[in-house]
Amino acid sequence: MTTLYTLLRQRAPTERHARALVTIIAGALLLVVTSYIHWHLWDSLGYRRVPTIGWLFLAQSVTGLVLAAAIIVTRELWTAILGAGFVASTLAGFLITVTHGLFGFQDSWLAPYARVAFGVEVGALVILSAGALLLRADVRSIDERRRSRD
Questions:
Q1: Alpha carbon separation from 95 to 53, 101, 108, 116 (Å, rounded)
Q2: pTM here?
Q3: Would you say 67 and 79 are in contact if contact means Cβ atoms under 8 Å apart?
Q4: Rounded to 5°, angle at Cα 43 from 102 and 41
Q5: Tens of pLDDT along 76-104?
Q6: What confidence tens digit (pLDDT) does each residue in 128-148 have?
């Protein structure tokens, strides 16, 4: 049975690059999970009726899916950085909404899926950031090898 890592390793210039690709793909899959959670909250649990915040939930869901697809398709450093930044902004929005309120809406850690979404988003941030660092380190080592050959 061929694993994702084996497939990526065959096409990646280095083993570190293959690990980086597996890492950012895992982060992208967590983006899909948080997108689904926000879609479910918007579609089924009434967040669509919350002024301003409701549309932000829908935008988070769609944008997260688009970014996840971009990460998986391109497997580039810039998409991993965008994904990490997006998740960081989602986390910041949640924390602001819980602690101070946002646009007249106060959320809670006891809200449906709040802790699950927070955990998934923290995981996505850590994994996408680690993947971006691995990709950056690999790009630097490939560049250095090319320069040493010239």
A1: 14, 9, 9, 14
A2: 0.84
A3: yes
A4: 50
A5: 999 999 999 999 999 999 999 999 988 88
A6: 999 999 988 876 665 565 566
Cβ atoms of 91 and 37 within 8 Å: the answer is no
DSSP string, 13-72: SSHHHHHHHHHHHHHHHHHHHHHHHHHHHHHHSSGGGSTTHHHHHHHHHHHHHHHHHHHH
Give the amino acid at 134: L
User: What radius of gyration do the chain's Cα atoms show?
Assistant: 18
The answer for 103, left when phi > 0, alpha when psi is -120 to 50, beta otherwise, is left
Q: How far is CA 29 from the centre of its chain?
A: 8
Nearest to 32 by CA among 64, 80, 2: 64
Q: Taking the CB of residue 109, how many other CB atoms lie within 10 A of it? A: 9
pLDDT at 18: 81
pLDDT band at 149 (very low <50, low <70, confident <90, very high): low
Task: Find the Cα–Cα–Cα–Cα dihedral 45, 51, 52, 54, rounded to 10°.
Answer: 10
Paired tokens of 1: 């049975």
